[in-house]
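User: Please predict the structure of the protein below. I'd like the answer in structure-token form so I can feed it into my own downstream comparison script.

Assistant: Understood. Taking the following sequence of 127 residues as input:
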Amino acid sequence: MLELVTECFLLVSDWVADHLPEVQKWVTKVVTDCFVPVWDWVIDQLSKVREWITGHPYATAAIIAFASILIFAPGIMPRIVLDFLGFGIKGITRGSIAAHFQSLFLGGFIPPGSIFAFLQSAGATLL
């Protein structure tokens, strides 16, 4: 058994020795042709992100706050979104997006089972 393992090891080592220059060329080509351009692109995109962040500090802060709430307190996000849209605990909030939508498209009739009815119900019941 030891002779068989030794023979296999010698065959593999001979193959590696014979093909090492080809493997080395292939790895160099892959790194040069694929990874370097991708890395350069990533660096360029990060530079653009930095420029945008510098030019839009308040929007950046809002995005970070929104993402933080979404990640660390996902349970309060629906309430925040519903309140923002105007689907409050006591009904549609005067002057809100929901109020304007209702006055423009629905009037006094809210179709049962509609998205608007669902959001209105969620706003009234979701704490």
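That's the full token string. The two ends are 72 Å apart (CA to CA).
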